[in-house]
Specification:
The protein has a five-stranded mixed β-sheet. A two-stranded antiparallel sheet has the order 1-2. With 151 residues, the protein is of the alpha/beta class. Helix content is 27%, strand content 29%. The chain has a single domain, classed as Glutaredoxin (3-Layer(aba) Sandwich).
Length: 151
């Protein structure tokens, strides 16, 4: 769904995390960033994906990656999701959908025959200079870290 591709400059962003801290793309200069967009806190697929990244977090850090999740859920919802699943990385509350639209992950979806607007689960691996190294659109929630590291 996204029009962004490998080699493109990642769109600049600023958003609030679960604690109200402002996080921006500039914060990650000099680091590789796993910026993953997911539909909703505390749903089965999103929990599997977050927990897979959590369980492999030390490996990701060792390989030079930082991790940030993004959804349209509120800061309060993110805080509960992090506490419940012991997540070691921040989640941005993009309630106004600015980041979702900038990264092209907000759009029409179909589920059980009905069409609606929603978030397309997509991960962007961004290099130390802010360019996109990889776009993962067919996310395997239970084995997402392997997709990130092998891309």
């Amino acid at each position: 769904m996204t029009k962004l591709k490998k080699g493109d400059k990642a769109p600049a962003f600023k958003g609030k995390d679960q604690d109200g801290n402002i996080i921006s793309l500039d914060d990650f200069k000099g680091h590789k960033l796993v910026l993953y967009f997911y539909p909703k806190d505390s749903t089965p697929g999103c929990t599997s994906q977050a927990c897979n990244l959590r369980d492999n977090y030390d490996l990701l850090i060792e390989k030079g990656y930082k991790v940030v999740g993004v959804s349209a859920d509120s800061e309060k919802s993110h805080k509960k999701f992090i506490e419940k699943n012991n997540l070691p990385f921040p989640l941005i509350a993009d309630t106004d959908k600015e980041m979702l639209k900038a990264y092209g992950v907000w759009g029409p979806k179909k589920f059980m025959g009905r069409e609606f607007l929603g978030i397309h689960r997509t991960t962007f691996v961004i290099d130390e200079e802010g360019s996109i190294l990889e776009v993962i659109e067919k996310v395997q929630t239970k084995d997402h870290t392997a997709q990130v590291i092998n891309e």
